[in-house]
Design a protein that fits this description.
5-stranded mixed sheet; alpha+beta; 16% strand; 7 strands; 17% helix; single chain; globular
């Protein structure tokens, strides 16, 4: 890297993801400032895309993360649900294994908005997960992001 050149940030895709969700795409948006109104509009757009073009997240799931709080390279992996532990993006700070989290969303009223997406990965022996260089869970696609970023 020379001064003034953008730093390359990679996303490494592990071959075992081919068994559950075989593709990952990432992009970095720079110099974007969100007011609360713009952020809300952005999330509304993301939700509309999930419902329509993304076919209820069966084809694509979109995650948004604050690059200032995470560290690349990023890894797209597939792991047993009991081996993925994180605090999901929810109002409380409870940590779950991915397997426990899917069971929670299936049975608890607090997770009813995510319940329709649970069957997409629930019966798979491996769940897709996106991690940063510090092994922090950024996302359990297509279900939910981690609270860290």
């Amino acid at each position: 890297k020379t001064t003034g050149e953008p730093e390359a940030i990679l996303t490494v895709k592990k071959a075992n993801t081919d068994t559950i969700r075989p593709f990952v795409v990432s992009a970095i948006l720079k110099d974007v400032t969100f007011t609360q109104e713009r952020y809300n509009s952005f999330i509304d757009l993301q939700d509309q895309l999930h419902r329509n073009l993304c076919r209820q997240r069966t084809l694509v799931a979109i995650g948004t993360h604050d690059l200032d709080t995470i560290q690349g390279p990023f890894t797209y992996d597939a792991r047993p649900g009991t081996d993925i532990n994180f605090v999901p993006l929810t109002p409380d700070d409870r940590s779950f294994s991915a397997k426990e989290l899917l069971e929670f969303y299936e049975t608890q009223a607090a997770g009813k908005h995510l319940k329709p997406y649970v069957p997409i990965i629930k019966d798979s022996p491996l769940y897709p997960v996106i991690l940063d260089a510090q092994e922090r869970v950024l996302s359990l696609p297509p279900i939910i992001n981690g609270s860290h970023s």
